[in-house]
Automatic annotation (TrEMBL), chain A:
<protein>
    <recommendedName>
        <fullName>BSD domain-containing protein</fullName>
    </recommendedName>
</protein>
<dbReference type="Pfam" id="PF03909">
    <property type="entry name" value="BSD"/>
</dbReference>
<dbReference type="GO" id="GO:0000439">
    <property type="term" value="C:transcription factor TFIIH core complex"/>
</dbReference>
<dbReference type="InterPro" id="IPR013876">
    <property type="entry name" value="TFIIH_BTF_p62_N"/>
</dbReference>
<keyword id="KW-0677">Repeat</keyword>
<dbReference type="GO" id="GO:0006289">
    <property type="term" value="P:nucleotide-excision repair"/>
</dbReference>
<feature type="compositionally biased region" description="Polar residues">
    <location>
        <begin position="102"/>
        <end position="129"/>
    </location>
</feature>
<dbReference type="GO" id="GO:0006351">
    <property type="term" value="P:DNA-templated transcription"/>
</dbReference>
<dbReference type="InterPro" id="IPR011993">
    <property type="entry name" value="PH-like_dom_sf"/>
</dbReference>
UniProtKB/TrEMBL annotation, chain B:
<dbReference type="InterPro" id="IPR006554">
    <property type="entry name" value="Helicase-like_DEXD_c2"/>
</dbReference>
<keyword id="KW-0413">Isomerase</keyword>
<dbReference type="GO" id="GO:0045951">
    <property type="term" value="P:positive regulation of mitotic recombination"/>
</dbReference>
<keyword id="KW-0378">Hydrolase</keyword>
<dbReference type="GO" id="GO:0016818">
    <property type="term" value="F:hydrolase activity, acting on acid anhydrides, in phosphorus-containing anhydrides"/>
</dbReference>
<dbReference type="InterPro" id="IPR027417">
    <property type="entry name" value="P-loop_NTPase"/>
</dbReference>
<feature type="compositionally biased region" description="Acidic residues">
    <location>
        <begin position="768"/>
        <end position="781"/>
    </location>
</feature>
<dbReference type="Pfam" id="PF13307">
    <property type="entry name" value="Helicase_C_2"/>
</dbReference>
<keyword id="KW-0804">Transcription</keyword>
Length: 616, 791
């Protein structure tokens, strides 16, 4: 049993209970129960929110990694006690959260796992069907190096039904078309869930990849902007998050906090004075801070921590790192003695003194963000690591000047190669010989000559029948106009009918996909959840063929509706009936045309199935 | 691949070649054959350096005369890149060599790069010094001839540099094995073998086939005399990235004097006086000896010619001057010290004036003579005399004498040139400043003065860059006649870059960095919104350039207060160029990490600043360049005004023409940094109303200008964004069409082109013959065929 750090009475989801912080977990027991109903690993805690001081209820909200809704606890002890309890929890949790953030490489093994152990969720052990687990290597190789840097193993779809369900749901929600198809086919029971997802594993994998991708820290500078409330007072809302960010951005504030807070200043006092101090104004590092100078008070405690503005031409903190010669600007400056006249005033860097601390702050902030994502090994070491993959040559290489075909292809290996070629040669030789025998050039020449004899007179005698020419032209014109009409009317399919047609088509497509999937052996590198047995396959194929067989009927039904609708429309507008009768036929044609490819495909599938059936 | 141009076998270290590279090599070869000078502009990122090196190395290896190559570049990163390029080329050549002898010949080929002591020092204490000058001085204290002699006779009596000593034990000429050594390689070799990298390079220079260093080593007379004297006349000189060569020329002959400098010079003169008194007591013979030498003439004084520890040299040494003896009145050491003292005092008095003075060297000399009776002739020998004295006195820590050295150089220069220079005294830093901070500018106005010795001495000088339009400007400014002058368009199967001119914001307010409107909130906001929008849609890296440091610093502050940068932070990290070079290098390195990582970043920097020269932003390091405003020079600068006036009077180059040319070459330079190779792509955004003007655009290099469409030359921000998105969508597709044959040539394509050219040549020959045959002055058939009839 791990030791308890602190406990408090707190309600969760309106049930009274006990909140406990142990060395590894934050857990909550409902009153009278032994097992915790909520159990959160330290590593899963991502953010912390508190109710305001003096609010009616004292609450604490804990956000989890990958789940912002988190858990809400209300402290139920009397106001003053509850407040103190909350503060202890807050302090501990803030530390934990900041630790979680500062060590990005040691994150949770499987964070999106559902953390509340309620009885409704099925336990992991009794998953319905044992499925082969595909090693995650495939998923991770295709991802960018930045993604895999978090070191977590991505969840493999299929290995865990709960997360699988959630993934599927997310995919369906984010892709409405797929969602509609799912509704039509799976929920109506035409095909099973598993069948639907078979062959769509990549979607799930992509979803997992996106989820497991660690979100970088947002880039914005920590710059608490005071809001002015009535009466000229200035208000800054301090959240634990903000405090953490300030400490990270300005270690000097953290130092001041550690030095002063419990003893000399209360926490509230500390922040109040900080935001009024010169230190804060220096940290804001903005030109406008000079305008606010009169608001700033002298402060004995904070002024101690004030450093001189970093606005000299050379930075206060000199860094002596070896710099790659390809980007070394200092080397150029030292390459030869100073010469020439000095630059004119616009080209002298650093004349705008006020901007320099700001500029330095930008560079440092960017570097810090980068290091938080990449780890901050010293430059020299980093270069040694990188040297392997990108040497100096790659920086000057013109890659398109290399011959792309120069790479050695895969040599075709053949059995009995010699015999194959010899055989070819022999047959070719015999064919040639045969051809040579039959070909008598002289005879052909003579024949041609005879044929061409008297061609001039023949040509002169050639007469073209006027009537047939006219007819041809007429038919062509008609053809063109007919096509034009169809083109113009094509989009007149009633919307309802159109959507029915689409549904019909996508459904048929899905059936076809399933059918062919069951017919052909799975591609070698294709990831399949559970390779189906031949028997299953056959059953499935049969089922699909059943559906496909009905496709013709469905299409016929559609066409009928189309006609009826058109007639209905015609009834409404009798005046233009003639016109609409025309549309009926056009619509009819259009329908047929639109559905033709799918019908062809279905027919082919049916034929294939039939022809294949006997040998089985 | 291996192919022939005429009968010269070329080995090119790739399987394919761009047509423009081929054309470039042909023109280069023509120049070398004709032993003349040339100006070549080749689009950025189409492998200029590799074609240049590949042709010249082939040329060197083929011809038995073995002309040396002096390859000059602007910055250390570019020098290092050129060395790496050369190293790879030689590896390829060795792997291509057929016979053992050929292989041997290729492996004996030697190439080195030279930079300062500061960059090449590995002495544990000396190399820690921050300032290059101090490193130079301390190095000299440990390595000069006198100290070495003393140290070797009596080990332990003086500090010596072990690395330098180890070098002395080796055979001269084989301090380092043959081959190509980049700066990093030389440093590593020095560390491994305990030898000094700097002196290795310096002493190996007579033996190398290719030496790569910066412009200053050839153009700055103070340095060139020490470093490049030995180079033979038939050497091939290449100025790569030469778009700013005129500025380097001018810089190398200009000097600034300030009051603290004069004070320090006066102190140094005092110290010299004390030292002379001291020596008089202990070793009077030394001074006598020097005096005798000076009587004999300068020639003898400096005949120990390879003199690496020279403190400074005469900034210009016409041959006749060398043969003259030093004037009598400054031959005696104490006389010379008195002379210097008077001169420094005179300069100090001049500094007290509280109004701006501009005068020619002649009027300065006249005034000087009237007041102090200092003549022109001794003034000319000032630098030389100081050098001789420093050597005689065996001074230590010469960095403390730097100001005096500057004053002496100033004296020599002002007494030597009558034309092309101006002296400007500015008592106040800015117009509204009240506390005087006087600066005495001695400014060179004529870039041809510094480069003249180079053109005179070397038979082939190649001036090349990605952006030196308009081409005829350079021969005019530098006063030479090129035999070949060429610019190459960029052949592309699909447009790999999209230049856009944004003239107004989405709110239709015109944007411009013109001085009157640049701080207008509407303009600042519109510039800001361009940055925000592009940071949203462009992947990886974005580089933004501002026309000046002053403007960048004020706009960054303004953007921060307007909350614009907060929007940018949401999408990308922000890095900014700072006044400190090392700090900026670190920021740059982090910027690259952010681009590699996928987080993406924005780099804010200054056109003509530190970053704009020598750093490439190819591939993911720069998917878009934003040029905020036209990078004009500060026209209120008195130096610039003087220079413009001089250009107008001497070369008939109009002020506005030069200013426009200068701004556009810098803009093009910034923008051209995004491309390397033809599969690379990038956006080039010119955000200023003035870029829409045809006369401005005409000054851009042809390869950029040809891709600015009429619609893209006058856009508002939202229209530009739509075009950019469209462009990025298309360019991100896999190029299906094969580039081979159009923008990429194989060996067969080259042969085809050569055959075609030959045919054309023969045809031209024939038609000439035909003409001779008829000789009636009528219209010949070819002309009839070519004639465009209006039917």
């Amino acid at each position: 049993m791990p030791t308890t750090v602190c406990t408090a009475k707190a309600s969760y989801k309106k049930t009274p209970g006990q909140l406990e912080l142990t060395e590894t977990h934050l857990q909550w027991f409902a009153d009278g129960k032994k097992a915790p109903s909520v159990r959160v690993l330290y590593a899963e805690a991502a953010s912390l929110f508190c109710s305001k001081e003096g609010a009616a209820q004292i609450r604490l909200k804990l956000g989890l990694v990958g789940d912002d809704t988190g858990h809400n606890f209300t402290f139920t002890s009397p106001q003053s006690v509850a407040y103190k309890e909350r503060e202890t929890f807050k302090k501990e949790l803030t530390n934990i959260i900041s630790r979680n953030r500062s060590v990005p490489n040691v994150t949770t093994p499987r964070p999106p796992l559902n953390t509340s152990i309620s009885s409704t969720t099925p336990a992991i052990s009794n998953a319905p069907t044992p499925r082969s687990v595909v090693p995650p290597s495939r998923a991770s190789t295709s991802r960018a190096p930045s993604v895999s840097s978090d070191g977590r193993t991505p969840i493999v779809p299929g290995s865990d039904p709960t997360s699988d369900f959630r993934l599927r749901k997310q995919v369906l929600v984010s892709n409405p078309e797929l969602g509609a198809l799912h509704r039509d086919l799976v929920m109506s029971g035409q095909i099973t869930e598993a069948e639907f997802w078979e062959g769509r594993e990549h979607l799930l994998l992509a979803q997992t990849a996106t989820e497991s991708q660690k979100r970088g820290r947002p880039g914005q500078l920590v710059d608490p902007r005071p809001e002015t409330v009535e009466g000229g007072e200035v208000k800054i809302v301090i959240t634990p998050q903000l405090v953490h960010d300030i400490f990270e951005e300005y270690p000097v504030v953290a130092k001041a906090y550690n030095d002063n807070v419990p003893n000399k200043l209360s926490e509230a006092e500390f922040w109040k004075r900080y935001f009024q101090s010169k230190l804060f104004n220096a940290h804001r590092a903005s030109i406008r801070s000079s305008a606010a100078q009169h608001v700033v008070k002298d402060d004995k405690i904070f002024d101690k921590y004030l450093e001189k503005d970093d606005d000299e031409l050379e930075p206060r903190r000199q860094r002596d790192e070896g710099i790659n010669l390809f980007v070394n600007l200092g080397a150029t400056r030292e390459d030869h003695g100073e010469t020439g006249n000095e630059q004119d005033i616009t080209m002298q860097a650093g004349r705008q003194r006020g901007a320099l601390p700001l500029i330095r702050k930008f560079n440092e902030h960017s570097e810090r963000l980068l290091n938080s994502a990449l780890g901050d090994e010293p430059t020299a070491k980093r270069r040694r690591i990188d040297a392997g993959k990108e040497d100096a040559y790659s920086q000057i290489d013109l890659d398109d000047l290399h011959d792309p075909e120069a790479s050695a292809g895969i040599i075709l290996e053949m059995q009995d190669r010699q015999r194959y070629f010899e055989g070819q040669m022999a047959s070719a030789a015999s064919a040639e010989a045969a051809a040579g025998k039959n070909l008598d050039i002289r005879a052909i020449l003579g024949e041609t000559k005879v044929n061409l004899h008297d061609w001039e007179t023949n040509l002169a005698q050639l007469k073209i029948n006027k009537k047939s020419g006219d007819a041809a032209l007429l038919s062509m014109t008609e053809n063109v106009s007919a096509r034009l009409e169809i083109k113009m009317k094509k989009n007149d399919i009633p919307p309802e009918l159109f959507s029915q047609m689409t549904t019909c088509q996508t459904a048929a497509n899905e059936f076809l996909r399933q059918f062919w999937l069951s017919m052909y052996p799975p591609a070698a590198d294709h990831q399949v959840l559970a390779p189906a047995t031949p028997a299953q396959k056959a059953a499935k194929a049969a089922k699909m063929i059943g559906y496909l067989g009905k496709t013709h009927e469905k299409v016929d039904a559609l066409i009928r509706t189309a006609q009826v609708e058109a007639v209905d429309a015609a009834k409404v507008e009798i005046v233009r009936a003639v016109c609409f009768v025309y549309i009926i036929t056009v619509n009819f044609n259009a329908n047929l045309q639109a559905m033709k490819p799918i019908l062809d495909a279905v027919d082919r599938a049916l034929a294939f199935y039939r022809s294949r059936k006997p040998p089985k | 691949m291996k192919f022939f141009i005429d009968n010269l076998p070329i080995i090119f270290p790739y399987d394919r070649i761009y047509p423009e590279q081929y054309a470039y090599m042909c023109d280069l070869k023509r120049t070398l054959d004709a032993t003349g000078h040339c100006v070549l502009e080749m689009p950025s990122g189409t492998g200029k350096t590799v074609s240049l090196l590949s042709l010249i190395v082939s040329y060197q290896q083929f011809h038995p005369t073995h002309r040396k190559l002096i390859y000059c570049s602007r910055t250390v990163p570019e020098i290092e890149k050129a060395l790496t390029e050369l190293k790879r080329l030689m590896e390829y050549r060795i792997s291509c060599a057929d016979t053992v002898e050929e292989k041997e010949k290729e492996s004996n080929f030697m190439g080195l790069g030279l930079t300062s002591r500061k960059n090449l020092c590995i002495h544990p204490e000396v190399s820690k010094e921050k300032k290059g000058k101090v490193v130079d001085a301390r190095c000299r204290d440990l390595t000069n001839a006198a100290v070495c002699e003393k140290g070797r006779q009596d080990p332990g009596s003086v500090d010596l540099c072990d690395w330098h000593e180890n070098l002395g034990k080796l055979d001269p000429g084989s301090l380092i094995p043959a081959g190509i050594w980049t700066l990093a390689d030389v440093l590593q070799y020095g560390r491994d073998n305990g030898t000094c990298p700097y002196f290795t390079v310096r002493r190996m220079m007579p033996f190398v086939d290719i030496i790569i260093y910066s412009f200053h080593y050839l153009l700055d007379p103070k340095v060139a005399e020490q470093v490049s004297k030995e180079m033979s006349k038939d050497a091939i000189v290449v100025f790569d990235e030469a778009h700013n060569i005129d500025n380097v020329c001018i810089e190398s002959l200009s000097i600034d004097l300030t009051r603290p400098m004069l004070d320090s010079a006066a102190r140094s003169v005092g110290k010299l006086g004390e030292k002379i008194e001291e020596i008089k007591q202990t070793d009077a013979a030394k001074l006598q000896d020097e005096y005798a030498k000076l009587v004999a003439g300068l020639q003898d004084a400096t005949d120990d010619s390879v003199d690496e520890d020279a403190f400074m040299t005469n900034p210009l040494l016409p041959d006749d001057l060398l043969k003259e003896a030093i004037p009598g009145n400054i031959r005696k050491a104490e006389h010379f010290v008195a002379f210097l003292k008077r001169f420094v005092e005179y300069l100090k008095t001049r500094m007290r004036v509280l109004h701006v003075v501009a005068e020619t060297p002649l009027s300065f000399l006249q005034h000087l003579k009237d007041i102090t009776y200092i003549e022109r002739r001794p003034l000319r020998f000032c630098a030389e005399r100081l050098q001789s004295m420093v050597r005689t006195l065996e001074l230590q820590r010469l960095d403390e004498y730097a100001s005096l050295q500057k004053v002496a150089s100033f004296a020599t220069l002002v007494a030597t040139y009558e034309k092309g220079f101006l002296l400007i005294l500015e008592p106040f830093e800015t117009d509204n400043a009240t506390i005087p901070n006087p600066i005495f500018h001695f400014t060179c106005l004529d870039p041809s003065l510094a480069i003249k010795p180079v053109f005179e001495r070397f038979s082939s000088v190649v001036i090349t860059s990605g952006t030196i339009s308009p081409l005829d400007m350079y021969p005019k400014m530098l006063q030479f006649t090129p035999v070949v002058q060429e610019t190459y368009p960029m052949t592309l199967t699909r447009n790999a870059f999209l230049p856009l001119v944004i003239t107004r914001g989405s709110d239709q307010v015109a944007i411009s960095s013109r001085f009157e409107v640049r701080n207008d909130p509407a303009v600042v906001r519109n510039f800001g919104s361009i940055l925000i929008e592009y940071s949203k849609i462009v992947p990886d890296g974005i580089v933004a350039f501002f026309p000046s440091y002053l403007y960048m610093e004020s706009i960054v502050a303004a953007w921060n207060d307007m909350g614009i940068l907060n929007e940018v932070w949401k999408n990308k990290l922000i890095f900014v160029e700072t006044p400190d070079a090392n700090e900026t290098s670190i920021a740059l390195e982090n910027y690259r990490r952010a681009c590699d990582n996928g987080r993406g970043a924005v780099l804010l920097s200054v056109a003509r600043g530190k970053v704009s020269e020598g750093i490439d932003f190819d591939h993911n390091y720069g998917r878009a360049v934003l040029m905020f405003g036209v990078p004009y020079q500060y026209t209120e600068s008195r130096i610039l005004k003087a220079r413009l006036e001089y250009l107008r009077d001497a070369y008939r180059i109009r002020e506005s023409e030069f200013l426009g040319f200068d701004a556009m070459r810098n803009a093009a330079q910034c923008v051209g940094r995004v491309l390397r190779g033809k599969t690379d792509w990038g956006l080039m955004v010119f955000a200023d109303k003035r870029f829409a003007r045809a006369d401005k655009r005409a000054k851009l290099p042809r390869w950029i200008n040809q891709y600015i469409t009429e619609t893209a030359s006058n856009l508002s921000t939202d229209m530009a964004l739509t075009l950019s998105k469209l462009f990025m969508r298309t360019i991100s597709q896999n190029p299906n069409e094969n580039q081979t044959g159009i923008s990429l040539w194989t060996l067969e394509d080259i042969e085809k082109a050569q055959a075609k050219q030959k045919e054309l040549a023969i045809e031209a020959e024939q038609s000439r013959e035909d003409e001779e045959e008829y000789g009636d002055g009528g219209i010949d058939d070819d002309m009839l065929v070519d004639f465009d009839l209006d039917v």
